[in-house]
Amino acid sequence: MLVPNQQVTLRPTEEPDLEFFFRFQLDKEANHMAAFTPKAPTDRTAYLEKFTKLLNDPTIHMQTILLDDIIVGSIAKYEIAGEAEITYWIDRNFWGRGIATTALANFLSIESMRPIGGRVAFDNVGSRRVLEKCGFVRIGGDKGFANARQAEIEEFIYRLS
Fold first, then answer.
1. What does the domain layout of the chain look like in residue ranges?
2. Across the strands, what pairs with 42?
3. Which of 23, 81, 87, 104 is 20 to 30 A from 65, comparing alpha carbons?
């Protein structure tokens, strides 16, 4: 669990934060758990170009997750065909400490768009728990090609009304 004297906070993502996020997603185990990742996760230039553009997209609400003053992840709301979705990524070195749950709860207090959905690989139990602890309800499933696994896998769809 989270060490009591450590503080999880959010702040708007800044361009230099993207370097941290890029390094986090290079972790093979984290990539496998996320499953639905870029086709070329090691392409730093493509990653930074894509996410720099996203920082300027008014439909995206991106925040950097800090543990005390250390960048440990990212969280964002984005829209697909007018439907809001949540995404988050925690550096694997900080998994299992309640950081994602705290960050998502904090994020939901500042992001008012509802309903908001979440998708998670069927076997990503940790991420499923994060969504459920924050009030998301599983409403269905889908199948999609997971670049990190080079296979079509099942994903669970969650919604918070």
1. 8-117
2. none
3. 81
Q: Which two tokens stand for residue 11?
A: 């702040």
Distance, in Å, from the CA atom of 65 to the CA atom of 143, rounded to the nearest integer, reads: 29
146 contacts: CB under 8 Å, gap ≥ 6: 35, 36, 37, 121, 152, 153
Task: Give the pLDDT confidence of 70-115 residue by residue, as tens digits.
Answer: 999 999 999 988 899 999 999 999 999 999 999 999 999 999 999 9
Q: Quick one: which of 10, 30, 22 has its CA closest to 102?
A: 10
> Parallel, antiparallel, or unpaired for β 116-121 and 70-80?
unpaired
- Give start and end residues of each alpha helix (H) in the chain: 17-24, 28-34, 44-55, 99-110, 125-133
pTM attached to this predicted model: 0.92
Which listed CATH number (1.10.3430.10, 3.40.50.1000, 3.40.630.30, 3.40.980.10) goes with 8-117?
3.40.630.30
